[in-house]
Amino acid sequence: MKSRLSMMLMSIMWLVACTETSLDAEPSYESVVKDDAFRATIDLPPGAAFVELDKGFTYYEAANLDTCDDPTVLVHGFSVPSYIWRPTFEFLSDAGACVVMLDLYGRGFSDNPNVAYTDHLFANQVLQLLDYLSLETATLIGLSNGGRVVSQVVGLAPERVEQLIYVASSGFWDATRAEDVQVTAEEIDTLIASYPELPAGQLSDFKYPDRFPDWDDRYAELLVHKGFARALISTRKNHDSTELDRIHSWLESADIPVTTIWGDSDTVVVFDEFADKLERLLPKRNEYFVYESGHLPNLENPGEFQAILKSTLPVLSM
Questions:
Q1: Number of structural domains, the chain?
Q2: What residues make up the domain containing 281?
Q3: Are 205 and 296 in contact (CB under 8 A)?
Q4: The dihedral sign for the CA sequence 42, 47, 52, 54
Q5: Is 164 helix (H, G, I), strand (E, B) or coil?
């Protein structure tokens, strides 16, 4: 992914290759282990719970499961967990839609397992949660790096997907998996040493960052979770476009509706950088550009974004 955070990670990897010095980090960073004691401190809102899946505990929130004819699953992006979907989750819930959002492994309240953070890992997490909730099929909405995840779900189990909605998806970029996907202690230490600067960098996702004054503070809360740096580095190292390109090409001939939504002023996932490739892979997609929005149109222009969902999700038009 070519976001500023992702590019920072690549720069950090290069720096580590040039030095054998391990940097000391702030004691408060990566000091909280996500164990039973941690989970006991979480004040769960209505509809929220933890479930132990194959690779660890997963935090999720759900609404209207008792009337779940056409569920929608919201999948977040590279580093910010499910709270990035809060307004959309509440909009769908208030409209009576069956909706689920989750924290992917290594993010938010879900476990940070010591595994390779691949598209397959996240896709299987989504599928296992669907199984746990007894949801046979769902509409999947993937934001940024979450677009990669929902594509991989289709690759693993196309029969489980009713519709795909990509929001500012980074899954159409060309990417090559690192030759060495192992994450070293030096790489982790170097990223943790940059933690003081990371929260402010998240504001670049917005066209008008001054409208989100607490966004960086909320992100700073994630930096205390042990294993966060490793999860980010491993995710970036395991990005590869070969399988995703194959899946997207197959989608064009499948019966699964595809919609793409972009912020008109996104400087993180820049549409023009892959527009030709996207047109070649998915020429029949439905496409929308959200006015006055950067990388997170669901937050910067929720009214227009939600209007698109109303026209796209059958459950909202009934």
A1: 1
A2: 4-316
A3: yes
A4: negative
A5: strand
> Quick one: angle between helices 185-193 and 228-237, nearest 10?
110
CATH number at residue 235: 3.40.50.1820
- Give every CB contact of residue 151 below 8 A, 6+ residues apart in sequence: 119, 142, 164, 171, 244, 247, 248, 251
Q: Please check whether residue 12 is in contact with residue 198, taking contact to mean a CB–CB distance below 8 angstroms.
A: no
C-alpha dihedral sign at 89, 92, 96, 100: negative
Q: Which residues of 80-102 are buried (b: 16+ CB within 10 A; e: fewer)?
A: bbbbbbeebbebbbebebbbbbb
**What is the pLDDT, as a whole number, of residue 104?**
98
Q: What is the pTM of this model?
A: 0.91
| pLDDT cut 70: percent of the chain above it | 91
Q: Please report the pLDDT score of residue 1 as a whole number.
A: 43
Residue 85 corresponds to which tokens in the numbers above?
Answer: 């979907």
Q: What is the DSSP string of 267-279?
A: SSS-GGGTHHHHH
* Model confidence pLDDT, tens digit, residues 10-67: 444 433 343 333 334 444 999 999 999 999 999 999 999 999 999 999 999 999 999 8
